Amino acid sequence: MKKIYKNIIICFAFLALLTSCEEELDLNNPTALSLEELLQTENGFDLLANGVLDAYQKVPANEFLLTELRSDNVRANSENGNFPDINAYIIDPSNGDVATYYSNNMATIKHANNIIDNRFLAPESYQYAVGEAYFMRALCHFNLVRAYQNIPYIDKVLDVATEEALDYPQLPESEVYEKIIEDFKTSIAYLNGVTQNRYRPSEAAAICLAAKAYLSQPNPNYTEAELLLASVVENNGSYNLDLLSTETDPSLSTGENNYNLVLDYGNIFGNEFVGSYSDADGTPDGTWTNNSGLEINEEVIFSIAYDYESSDNYVTSDSGLDDQIETDSESFSFAMTLQGPSNGVNLASLDFLEVMTPELQPVRFYASVNALNYGSFLSDPSVDVFNVKFPTDGEIGDNDWIVLRYADVLLLYAEAILAGGDSTTDARAIDAFNQVRARAGLDEIANLTRDMLLEERRVEFVYENQRLYDLIRFGEADTVLQAFSDANSLNYNPDLKYLPFPQREIDNLPDFYSQNSGY
Questions:
Q1: What is the three-class DSSP state of 312?
Q2: Smallest Cα–Cα separation from 503: which of 492, 495, 512?
Q3: Which helix (H) or strand (E) holds 406?
Q4: CA–CA separation, 103 vs 167, rounded Å?
Q5: Which InterPro entries does this UniProt record tie to the protein (predicted)?
Q6: Is the dihedral angle over the CA atoms 149, 151, 155, 157 positive or is it negative?
Q7: Where do the domains of the chain lie?
Q8: Would you say the C-alpha torsion 152, 156, 160, 163 has a positive or negative sign?
Q9: Which fold has domain 1-126+148-171+476-519?
């Protein structure tokens, strides 16, 4: 390991960008090579690319707590540690989840930069690894800018023997987005023509996330977003993408057709329904269980693979990464799974249960919230209603984490066409919106409003860490979250949309970070 000079002040997250190559590549492999040695081996860039995905496995682990738990969809049990405080918008800069999320994204950026810094050495057959590195670097910065707002953009592996970290100050949000979009676009060029693997970055994923970044920046570029999304939506067949949906059978009742759609919706997440349905109205009666054979489907564009191996290890062998990527208990946020009841953080808010009902959402209801809990809740409002999108039982399970799916692309396309307006009758936007709505067992609409689109995203993506960022992107966070906070005696105010920069970052780089207002 390189010598770290005592006179250098370096923050914890940047330290993740500076650690030794031997250490970063030691993926439970006793023969792990140094970066210099890997660059001289035939498959070195392949192993480096696997290391980037391995590093990202840590990122979703606490994302739910910092995103969905700070929305109006979810609440926390009042007796569970600091989770109720996060839910109530009471977050200290010393909060461990805040710091961990920051450093885990930065660590993945480091791995990506190892490839990008040496990209000119990559053999022709491993150019895809360079594209994946640009993609993952953009994705991690996209996570960070939405969570913390004005962040540094790290575009190289920093040298511990210099004070290079000080050359990477916080940038205005708009400049960060410019760099994110540039990286996604660079990855598109590298990934063009690469064989699709939904467990790895792809051209389609890069196109769509670049578009999402265009929509998320302070001054959205609807035109560029629309062009990018149209290239995927209008050619979805060539990308092997579509909604997972069973065509309605006129010979079946509405309830029976909806039951089939419930199964489709659960299958998106790799969930299999164990039970039956009522002949009278098609109401499902049973439970969900994870089935890894269902997790790769035509709706998933990019997901992070988790495969249960033992009580102590995860391995992404189902993603084709083999045993090189085996990590210690790197499950995704099991606060969202059936483990959640013991943590008490995946409870549906009373506000959300007003829109997520069997009557209003005959399909998504049964694959999103626990119907048995809900039945008890109707007679006793104090009953907790948990989610069923991630039916992992116990602290360690194997639900994959979906970063991007086709339903998101369709609704983003409608959003880009709406272009910040109040409504549209544009046939392309209506068609995209109605595809998602039909899969939910709902009637088509002829006029799409901004409010309808935001509400559709809420019920389609509940528990998928989208709601908070949707509210911010639509400019509705202060209105919606303030009202939710006031109604539930929480502590939201407009200064608390973004997370505080971790205190350990500030302590290790004095006068470097400007703390977000409100903290």
A1: coil
A2: 512
A3: helix 406-418
A4: 18
A5: SusD-like_N, SusD_RagB_dom, TPR-like_helical_dom_sf
A6: negative
A7: 1-126+148-171+476-519, 254-297+306-399
A8: negative
A9: 1.25.40
